[in-house]
Amino acid sequence: MPTLTDRAHEHRVSRAEFEAFREEREKRQDGARYELLDGEILMTPSPGGLHQLIATRLVLLISAALPAGREVVTAPLDVELQAGKGDTTLQPDVLVTDRADLTGGGLQATPVLVIEILSPSTWRRDLGVKRDAYATAGVEHYWVVAPDTPSITAYRLGPDGAYREECHVTGEEQWTAAAPVEITLCPAELTR
Description:
Layout: H1 15-28, E1 33-37, E2 40-44, H2 49-65, E3 70-74, E4 79-81, E5 88-90, E6 94-98, E7 102-103, E8 106-107, E9 113-117, H3 123-127, H4 129-137, E10 141-146, E11 151-157, E12 163-170, E13 175-177, E14 183-185, H5 187-191
Parallel strand pairs: 9-10
Antiparallel strand pairs: 1-2, 3-6, 4-5, 6-9, 7-8, 10-11, 11-12, 13-14
């Protein structure tokens, strides 16, 4: 099966082939996360401690401010998206969705918010092909946390289907999001 080839468009795999591939890898317990992006298999190493700390803090802050009927969830949770010519199943670091859309097998609806926490092995993907896939699938809010800076960049889907930067804050700066959850975030506080 192809993985990250230059000719992935010629060798797209189906969701069923991806599941078989992932089941085989899980038997080996390699600790990696596997995602499917437009029929191409992506592998991500297990996240580090700071990454997990930020994800946990985001979940705690967001869950305290969520309106009724919404839930905040962390990876690994399969999110099946309509985002291109091939099948796409991604595992956002943190997401917000309607509770009714969560199923035993994952999420088969478009989340209202996706948050990715950048790492040396994922930042190009998170700011490139994955961001594009989320936009194509109609994810209205996309936030990116860069631990090394530290910074938060929030994007909102425009009427043309492309993300527009809503804000960018660094260090001790604060940002208050009005949607999809009203919350004030400070990059430095997420990484302390």
